[in-house]
């Protein structure tokens, strides 16, 4: 999982560049085929290296082609600006619904056919979705001149402009905290609960609850992003996560406390994605949104890598997850403060000056 998060993040800026240059259709179609290849690698892997290549490297790259980094960029171009945040929230909710459905389905397939055959069946089903990518056009939405990259701005200039913007790096740092929290909980929560005396079923049920409540949370935050300032929503979301983790650490551990915690965390789970993407497009425009969000998402996945890796490392050294839970709370507070410092006004990019250069 740590390798998958890392390669997903490393590949995201480059798949974003390709999507902005050639459109999202080819990228998403290629991603589905890579996903099939990665699952085949996993099914027939006989060594740790083979499993790492399949599940970590190939599927990590495939995810950079098929998940919200590319999907949100495509939506930003075809959906009017006043409904864009709602559309991204809806897309995220549909993705969350797919996750919720596929987890129990995968368990049933493994029960009946064994895990190698189940992986192959999943790969075939995913590859069959490749033609659906053609429903995404490369139509550009109309936006005010000051809030969008002009045709005369190159991709390199857009990247340089973003890299010179203080808020871009604040957003990167905040999104790193998000990735750390989510990857740690998704990877280590079942082990933490088992270590504290609860059953493995409680861990599985908790993750299922997260997947379920994430559907409503992503849709809600996406919708709210069209009504309120996104940086304030993001700061509030990170504070709410920190409070939820703190309460989870303070109350006596029981199945009930686990389910309540997972319900709250699930609602706060991926609401960051449409808000962060919307913040990037609101400041820099949509012309190179997939590329710029790809760089921000690298920060998220770097945090995810650290959350998975450090969670295991710290537990091996201390036989406790307390340090990582505390780190998650501290990162949540830092992320909230950083988002409040972001200048979320559209960059000033007069057409006359751009044409003159």
From TrEMBL:
InterPro entries: MFS, MFS_dom, MFS_trans_sf, Proton-linked_MCT. The chain crosses the membrane at residues 27-45, 51-75, 87-106, 112-130, 169-191, 203-221, 233-252, 258-280, 292-315, 321-342. Residues 1-347 form the Major facilitator superfamily (MFS) profile domain. Gene3D superfamilies: MFS general substrate transporter like domains (1.20.1250.20). The keyword rRNA-binding does not apply. Keywords: Membrane, Transmembrane, Transmembrane helix. Coiled coil: none annotated. One of its GO terms (molecular function) is transmembrane transporter activity. The keyword Secreted does not apply. This is Putative MFS-type transporter YhjX. It comes from mine drainage metagenome.
């Amino acid at each position: 999982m740590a390798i998958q998060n890392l390669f997903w993040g490393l590949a995201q800026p480059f798949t974003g560049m390709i999507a902005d240059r050639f459109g999202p259709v080819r990228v998403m179609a290629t991603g589905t085929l890579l996903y099939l290849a990665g699952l085949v690698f996993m099914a027939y892997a006989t060594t740790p290296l083979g499993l790492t290549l399949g599940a970590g490297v190939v599927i990590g790259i495939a995810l950079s082609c098929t998940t919200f980094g590319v999907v949100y960029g495509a939506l930003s171009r075809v959906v009017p600006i006043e409904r864009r945040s709602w559309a991204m929230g809806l897309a995220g909710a549909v993705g969350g619904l797919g996750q919720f459905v596929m987890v129990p389905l995968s368990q049933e397939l493994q029960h009946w056919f064994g895990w190698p055959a189940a992986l192959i069946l999943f790969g075939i089903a995913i590859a069959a979705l490749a033609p659906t990518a053609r429903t995404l056009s490369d139509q550009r939405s109309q936006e005010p001149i000051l809030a969008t990259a002009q045709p005369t701005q190159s991709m390199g200039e857009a990247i340089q402009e973003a890299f010179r913007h203080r808020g871009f790096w604040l957003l990167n740092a905040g999104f790193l905290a998000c990735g750390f929290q989510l990857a740690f909980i998704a990877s280590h929560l079942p082990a933490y609960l088992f270590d504290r005396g609860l059953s493995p079923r409680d861990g599985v049920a908790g993750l299922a609850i997260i997947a379920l409540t994430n559907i409503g949370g992503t849709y809600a935050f996406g919708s709210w992003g069209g009504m309120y300032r996104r940086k304030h929503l993001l700061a509030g979301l990170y504070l709410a996560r920190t409070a939820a983790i703190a309460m989870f650490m303070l109350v006596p551990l029981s199945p009930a406390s686990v389910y309540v915690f997972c319900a709250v965390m699930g609602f706060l789970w991926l609401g960051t994605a449409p808000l962060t993407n919307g913040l990037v497009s609101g400041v820099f425009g949509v012309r190179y949104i997939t590329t710029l969000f790809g760089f921000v998402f690298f920060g998220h996945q770097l945090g995810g890598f650290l959350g998975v890796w450090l969670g295991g490392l710290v537990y091996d050294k201390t036989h406790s997850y307390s340090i990582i839970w505390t780190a998650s709370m501290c990162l949540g507070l830092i992320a909230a403060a950083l988002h409040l410092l972001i200048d979320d006004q559209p960059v000033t990019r007069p057409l006359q000056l751009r044409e003159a250069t």
